[in-house]
Write a structure and sequence with these properties.
The chain is built from five helices and 25 strands. With about 350 residues, it is α+β, with helices and mostly antiparallel strands. The strands form seven sheets. Strands 12-13-11-15-14 form a five-stranded mixed sheet. Strands 19-18-17-16-20 form a five-stranded antiparallel sheet, with no helix packed on it. It has a five-stranded antiparallel sheet with strand order 23-22-21-24-25, with no helix packed on it. Helix 4 packs across helix 5. The radius of gyration is 35 Å and the shape is elongated. The termini are far apart. The structure holds zinc ion (2 copies). The site of one zinc ion has 8 residues, from helix 1.
């Protein structure tokens, strides 16, 4: 046993000559600033810690962010074993809150408690990412185009969804630069301006994978900063000329192109409703849902539809393709009119529904 230099009590172990309770009395067991500035981005609630901005987790309320900031600013003394820190907040106004911080633990088995008050001041500024984003900064452009035709509205909608979902995923995985600065329609397609090159690469690959497209990447020197070359990268995402079920002429015949692979197409002949194969260069594209016209359905029986030709307004008989499902209550049919003849598409993909209204 040893004797405490302060109170004379006998103790198993001394800390700097003092027993644990005297040590606790004279030592700052809990250090905390009197005032803590919590700097948050006015746009995205990211918090400045040191020199870096940190995104909050999805949907975290401001009180939690404040509490976490205070928690990060208080320190328990190293001699305190198993410290438990409890915070109680009392809000003064929208920007000021007083936190009562209570730490309990033990020093060499002697229970100790310390208490501090911290005034948390909320400050709003703009984070590095948001100032780039609102300043129009971008490092990558995704040019969404099609081969030999315009990109269709439903293809643009699908690309929008892929890009939105992927940006969310990339940000959730910690890429703060995965943002869209601006986007807009251009002749023939759509452009997306992205804050980060790697994000642009991932987004274009995903759009290409989902929509059946190729990606061509080109880098351009955009300037120098602190002796480092800065590049701006363009990703040209080009979808195929033939989208699923597009119409084409094969010789004199009208076909729908079901799929294309390395210059070879699987086609469906509208005459006789038969599948076949063809070289893509032997096909002449007529179009997609954009070339369909709505024809009034006059009557139908087991084998035929009778429709009104939308141009000549004559009644025309169309043989019912095998397995053709007429929607309940349908008063019109979508037809392809080519050289004065009407054709019923053998396939109407779901992706066309948005265009056929
Ligand atoms: Zn003592
Ligand atoms: Zn921000």
């Amino acid at each position: 046993m040893m004797m405490c230099v302060e109170c004379g009590a006998q103790s198993e172990r001394l800390i700097g000559g003092s027993c644990a309770s005297c040590f606790a009395k004279k030592t700052e067991l809990l250090s905390a600033p009197l005032v803590l500035d919590v700097e948050l981005c006015a746009h995205c609630d990211a918090r400045l810690i040191g020199n870096t901005w940190n995104d909050p987790d999805e949907g975290v309320p401001i009180q939690w962010i404040r509490e976490e900031a205070v928690r990060g600013a208080v320190r328990s003394h190293a001699k305190v074993h198993a410290p438990v820190v409890v915070l109680t907040e009392s809000a003064q106004d929208e920007k000021h809150s007083t936190f009562t911080v209570v730490m309990t633990g033990d020093v060499d088995g002697v229970p100790v408690e310390a208490r501090r008050e911290v005034l948390a001041r909320l400050r709003r500024s703009v984070c590095d990412r948001c100032s780039k984003m609102f300043g129009g900064y971008y490092a990558a452009i995704i040019q969404f185009r099609a081969t030999g035709r315009d990109v269709r509205p439903e293809e643009i909608q699908r690309a929008h969804r892929v890009i939105g979902d992927e940006l969310d995923r990339l940000r959730a995985n910690g890429n703060r630069e995965a943002f869209l600065t601006k986007s807009g329609a251009v002749p023939g397609g759509f452009d997306y301006y992205i804050g980060d090159i790697e994000a642009g690469r991932i987004l274009s690959k995903e759009v290409a994978r989902r929509l059946g497209a190729t990606v061509i990447e080109t880098a351009k020197l955009a300037g120098r900063k602190l002796g480092v070359d800065l590049y701006r990268v363009t990703f040209l995402v080009r979808i195929e000329l033939y989208s699923e079920s597009d119409f084409a002429l094969y010789g004199e015949e009208i076909v729908q192109v079901l799929s294309v692979n390395k210059g070879r197409a699987v086609i469906l002949r509208l005459q006789g409703n038969k599948k076949d194969r063809a070289e893509v260069e032997d096909l002449k594209r007529l179009g997609g849902p954009d070339v369909l016209q709505e024809a009034v359905l006059v009557s139908h029986d087991a084998t035929n539809f009778q429709v009104l030709d939308p141009v000549s307004l004559k009644t025309v008989d169309l043989p019912k393709p095998v397995g053709y499902e007429l929607e309940a209550g349908a008063t019109t049919l979508w037809v392809l009119r080519h050289e004065e003849r009407l054709w019923l598409p053998a396939v109407i993909p779901n992706a066309w529904r948005a265009s056929l209204k």
